[in-house]
Structures are given as C-alpha cells and as structure tokens.
Amino acid sequence: xxxxxxxxxxxxxxxxxxxxxxxxxxxxxxxxxxxxxxxxxxxxxxxxxxxxxxxxxxxxxxxxxxxxxxxxxxxxxxxxxxxxxxxxxxxxxxxxxxxxxxxxxxxxxxxxxxxxxxxxxxxxxxxxxxxxxxxxxxxxxxxxxxxxxxxxxxxxxxxxxxxxxxxxxxxxxxxxxxxxxxxxxxxxxxxxxxxxxxxxxxxxxxxxxxxxxxxxxxxxxxxxxxxxxxxxxxxxxxxxxxxxxxxxxxxxxxxxxxxxxxxxxxxxxxxxxxxxxxxxxxxxxxxxxxxxxxxxxxxxxxxxxxxxxxxxxxxxxxxxxxxxxxxxxxxxxxxxxxxxxxxxxxxxxxxxxxxxxxxxxxxxxxxxxxxxxxxxxxxxxxxxxxxxx
Length: 389
Hints:
Blueprint: E1 10-13, H1 21-26, E2 31-36, H2 40-43, H3 46-56, E3 60-66, H4 73-85, E4 92-98, H5 100-112, E5 141-145, E6 157-163, E7 166-172, E8 180-183, H6 193-212, H7 218-240, H8 245-265, H9 269-281, H10 285-315, H11 323-340, H12 357-362, H13 367-370, H14 378-387
Parallel strand pairs: 1-8, 2-3, 2-4, 4-5, 5-8
Antiparallel strand pairs: 6-7
C-alpha cells in the first residue's frame, strides 16, 4: 500500500480559542494581511477583535479586502494587486477569515502574490489559461473558518469562478495548505439556519465522497468515519438551534476533517456537478451538493455497497442489518436529513431547466468527477440530471 498524506502543520481547535489568535499569528510573522469572506464579520465586531488581539501580540495588521461572493478570477487578480502594492516584505503573512469562499480567496492571493509569471490567476487554474505552475512558496497563512462547510482551511486548492467564459476551476498546489488553522466553533453561531444547512451538507457530502472515492486512502477514510459520526446527528440540531454548543463543535470538527480527507482522497459526482450548477444556474455550492448527494449515493451503490454498510455500522453499531440493508439505510438517512433541514428534492425547485442540462454535463468534467468510484458517461449523467428535474 502506497500513499501520501497532507494536512496543515498545526491545528488549534476549540470553543473561544479565537482569543489565542495573537500569539498564534506572531509565530508566522509581524504583519498580518487580512482577507475576509463576510461583511458581517466587520459589522459584528469580529474583525475589530481580530485586529485588537493581533496588536496585543505586537503584530500589525491591514484589512486588505472583504469579498462575500464565491471568488472570481477578477477578485483574485484585484486582491493580489492590492497585496502587491502594499509592499510585501519579510514577516508578512495572510489571515483568511470567513467561510470557504473567503479562505479560498486568501489562499489564492497568498500564492499569487509570490508567483508573478502571469498577472492573472487564470493562467494557473486547472484546465484553463496557460497551465502555469506555482513555483514559489505562498506567503505563510493562518486560516480562521467561521462556517462549518467546505473545510477549505485544510485543503490544498482554492476554487475560483468566472462568468465569461463560464467555469469554476481550482488553483491547486500542495504548499497551498494553510500553515496554521484556528477553528473556534463559537464563530459559527451567528450563521443563519439556511446557510448552516447548506454548508453542513457540503461537509457531509465531502466526508461521504472522500470515503468512497476511487482515490480513497486509509487515514482519510478513518477521518471520514469520525466526521460522519459527528455530523449526521449534529446538523439538524445546529440548523434548529444555532446556539447549541455541542452541535456547532461537532459540525466545525467534521468540516475540518472533511477538508483533510478531500485534500488527500478527492471527491465524486456530487462535487463534479456542483460547480456546474453554480456557474450555469447560480446555485450556492453547499445547496448544489446537498441536492446531488442522494442521487450520487444511489448511482454508486452498485460499486460501493460494502463501504456504505461500513459507514452505517460505524455510526449506528446498535443496528443489525445485513450489508444490503445497511447500505440502503445510509441512503435513506441522507434523504431524511435533507428533508428535515428543508433541502429541495429536485433541481427544478432550484430553477434548473431541461435546456441547461447539456451545459451542466459539459461543465461537470473536472478533478472531482474523476474521483467518482465508477465511470459516468455523458449520456448517463444526462439521464441522472433529467431524473432530478
């Protein structure tokens, strides 16, 4: 058995550990360049508190940019240009704070500001542009997630979108994994219920797809089982009671584990289609994953029944199912969870039309789809999406 394993150098997890940010940041450098993924973090005082705690540790800071949307090529290029003109010097490092989109923007900019062969991230993205590689190490980075979703704080890629031409592609390199992760579940308590539901289902989709991926590896699979045991009972409670400490802790921990897992094992069909739904239909990533997950599990049942049963037996050891029933139980539980947290069952409920399916199929071929445990032809994917309308 041969495999490599990647993860952040240090992870600091726990309730109210945000208060330790100053001393952690000081281990990376003397000037923090902050990139935020949510304007609400400024409105509710989190950015002010961050800068105050940094100052106490003798770390100066600058709020470079706040971008609430999923990062576009233009966002990365503009923010990188701002960083470049701030006069990058020894002791500088990046803090990415927010949801997955904000942390992705920070990761991309930390890499692009030190790699100047092209002025645009477009030329470094997978499958588009000039196919340039990141040859220089990014600026050091501290990631502070404020949602429990993508696990971007632990991944080696940043997802970047574009409207014309329409695509959603990754900037990817092993050295893009953040140096430090500070995960304080308390920061996620202000996330509204529908966002909690969507980002939480992204976490669960990542854990399931990484476990059954064609590139699955033993350490990530162990992390996936632990993450699913935390997340499956916790998500509905986090949606229904956003101040529940235990559910917020469990979801934040599960999201972190999902990021480590996908960075090592890849994903599958749900994450293959989700970027296409985002680009062509403007559907938020977590919501797209949630709607696609039951269909993905059904599609892969024929080649991953044993793995589904393993998950069920780990999560619910008290149940005495044979392999077939245990596998079906997992699929049923995912659909029941979607129903409980009010995730739509069909793509048509999200505004997807039959005429969009060819574009969705064409845009679903990427790194995530290549990790699906069995080959899915364009014809089969067309039928799957039509059945979901």
